[in-house]
Design a protein that fits this description.
By secondary structure, the protein is of the alpha+beta class. The protein is built from 11 helices and 22 strands. It has 2 domains: 5-218, no CATH class; 281-402, Glutaredoxin. Helices cover 23% and strands 29% of the residues. The longest helix is centred in the middle third of the chain and has 17 residues, at 196-212.
């Protein structure tokens, strides 16, 4: 992490930065009164074990007062973090200003000493007015929504408690942030997710990238839903429960459990930096790997060492490959192996992690933060790693062809009319 000083005007931004970076964080004087604790969702790979967190093991889909669907979260671990350290106000500190130009307000309500059976779970609905319900432990329930009336209905249905609005707590998340240093604009960034979970998760990943390099030109996509999911989510309320459950299970298997879970929880975002562009979701169906350009690699543990794969990443280019791939490069090469190849040089990981990365066939180029910059077949290593190609690597072939199309020899004009009459008239052959 960069050791820059950050001055923020939003409490949740300061809270996240304080949790994931080693920088000095200060709040501007105009900010609302500081609170004793704050909660947010974060990829488990970005936090240390000393933090007070809940590992989210399952998620569920709600329709009014019914639990339609409940599944485990696969691979990408999500944590619900409680931050209790105080953040001081600005004290003549010079550094990078993070300005929240636009905000989205969520209402938070906590219920204590209410026994339930959903520990370490998060429930969500699929309505335009999103509701996130978190069960951090066996006796606590947390509710989030951007609409008070919706939130009160869910609280009443789940707990039979009538809520007074004065007990709601407001949480302001930025949807557009601006970075300035010495009053000079560095860049602006937009956040596209809508739910508390999705926006929180997206903001953490964005701030983590900016901590490494505030000057990065980063963009983030919207939550990438398959069109079949989008179509069904829009009309699932009109289906009976037994049919909804059947369709949910079909979509889960159709998309794959990992992707479907990310889509449901609104964390299926793609991040780009520099000259990289968003992946084409249609082309990604034919991807050679479980991970595509713009995604973050999951937390993978190195056996016999008290560290993860991320601890081996350095600034610049990192190449991750199998120990038996015979890949040679001047870049930071991280060779991974299993017990099957224990005689080879490299770091030992579990067979499931090895299979997840599909290292028998693929290699990865990743940033220090674990962002996938390139994924390709081992046999294409030499061609893929040419500097000119690496900087302009596209995952969307159609977009690439459009960008490289030369138009200087063409002049704008209206297309000439063309008529094709055939006599005698005949029916078109099928």
């Amino acid at each position: 992490m960069s050791n820059k000083n950050y001055i923020v005007d939003n409490l949740i931004v300061g809270t996240i930065l304080k949790s994931i970076s080693k920088s000095s964080i200060k709040l501007k004087n105009k900010i609302e009164k500081n609170s004793s604790s704050s909660y947010f969702f974060v990829p488990s790979s970005l936090i240390d074990h000393e933090s007070v967190m809940t590992q989210i093991d399952t998620y569920g889909i709600l329709n009014k007062n019914k639990l339609l669907f409940r599944e485990p979260i696969i691979r990408e671990q999500i944590s619900y973090l409680k931050f209790e350290n105080e953040i001081n106000y600005q004290n003549e500190l010079h550094g990078v200003d993070i300005i929240s130009n636009q905000n989205k307000t969520f209402y938070f309500y906590s219920i204590e000493n209410f026994v339930h059976k959903y520990e370490s779970s998060v429930f969500t609905n699929l309505s335009s007015n999103n509701v996130n319900i978190i069960f951090p432990n066996k006796t606590t329930i947390h509710f989030y929504s951007s609409k008070k009336n919706i939130l009160k209905k869910y609280i009443k249905k789940l707990t039979n408690i009538v809520v007074d609005e004065k007990f709601f707590t407001e949480v302001n998340f930025p949807t557009e942030i601006e970075l300035r240093e010495n009053n000079t604009l560095i860049n602006t960034y937009e956040l596209t997710n809508k739910s508390f979970l999705g926006l929180s998760y997206q903001l953490v990943q964005l701030l983590n990238l900016l901590c490494s390099n505030p000057n990065l030109n980063i963009k983030v996509s919207e939550n990438q839903n398959h069109y079949l999911n989008t179509l069904f989510f829009s009309f699932y309320k009109f289906f009976p429960s037994f049919l909804s459950n059947f369709i949910f299970k079909f979509l889960l298997r159709f998309n794959g459990s990992d992707i479907f879970s990310k889509q449901i929880l609104e964390v299926n975002n793609i991040f780009t930096s520099e000259n990289y562009i968003f992946s084409n979701s249609i082309d990604d169906d034919q991807s050679i790997s479980n991970f595509k350009i713009g995604e973050f690699l999951p937390k993978i543990f190195i056996k016999s060492k008290n560290k993860s794969l991320k601890d081996l990443l350095i600034d610049g280019v990192n190449v991750i490959s199998s120990s038996n791939s015979n890949i040679k490069t001047k870049e930071n090469l991280i060779s991974l192996k299993t017990e099957t190849h224990k005689n080879l040089d490299g770091h030992l990981i579990s067979p499931s992690s090895f299979e997840l990365l599909d290292l028998n066939d693929c290699f990865y180029v990743v940033s220090k933060d674990g962002l996938v910059l390139l994924v390709d077949l081992n046999k294409n290593f030499k061609a893929s790693m040419k500097a000119s190609q690496l900087k302009s690597k596209y995952s969307d072939k159609k977009q690439k062809s459009m960008d490289t199309f030369e138009v200087k020899n063409f002049t704008p004009s209206i297309p000439r009319p063309s008529f094709n009459f055939r006599w005698p008239l005949s029916l078109k052959k099928q």
